[in-house]
Structures are given as structure tokens and as C-alpha cells.
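Q: My labmate handed me this sequence with no annotations at all. I'd like to see what the chain might look like in three dimensions before we decide whether it's worth expressing. Could you predict it?
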Amino acid sequence: MELPAHKFLDERSIPYRRMSFPDTTEKGAANVAAALGFRERQMIKTLIFEIVDTGEKLLIMVGADQNIKSGLLKKAAGSRNIRMAEPDAVYALTGYRIGSIPPFCWQPEGFRTFLEASLSGESELGVGAGQWGEEIIITPENLIKASNAIVVALVEQEA
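A: Here is what I predict for the chain of 159 residues:
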């Protein structure tokens, strides 16, 4: 199956692996990790946030077992007035339903994408390929390259 995310990576010669899991798997990055035999930290949640004052949308990537710290996100975004985007707005922007949004191939020019800094130390990360049941396995370096992500601390650091 050739999806737009695969084509995007292939056209840019960015290495990755394709993996599939049963499309009956319950939604959520943690469930994808279990289905594919990865640690939760390695499967990425791709979340769309909106800066309320300007309407700017942001893509935020964190591990399945991580929670965004509001203050860190607000600092990275440069606004205190930020919220999760509504599902209809996410679909209108990305062309994808929540649950398997690839972190590349759909962003307009100048779109800001953030990757949680601690994920840079992982050997591989999994991101949605745009269709539930399909996952892209990619190194953090290649994910940053493909998504043009800004690496920043977004979660409470573990002791």
C-alpha cells in the first residue's frame, strides 16, 4: 500500500520502515506500541494545537507515555492562549482523522512542528502513516528532517 506519507519520504530519499498492525487494534499510540512490540515512548502521539488569538495550528509530537506540560508548550508556541484543535479543524487542516496523522506530507509552508526533546535519544520512533493499521518506523534524525520539527522540551522531565 502506497500512502502519501510513504511517497513524501521516498521522494526525499529519507529512510524508514513500514509496519502494519491489525486495524481492529484499539485507538491510541500506546496500543500501537503493544501491537508492534515497541516501548510506549517510541510510538508518537501527533497532536494538533491551536493558538486561539491568531488561529495558527501547531503539530506537537510526544511519546505515547508522555504528557505535555502546559507551561512548556505555551513557551514554545509563544502564546499563553493555546488549546487542542477540534477534530473537524484537524481534518480540515491535515486531511486526516485523529488517530493516524502523519507528521509530514500535508503541512503548508511555514507550519510549525515541535518534537519533544527526550525523543531524540531513541533509536527508532513510530509515527502514523495516515491510515489506521499502518505505521512508519523512522529514526529521530530522519523524523526531524522529514517534519522540519523544532526540538524542544515539552514534558515534565523524569527524576
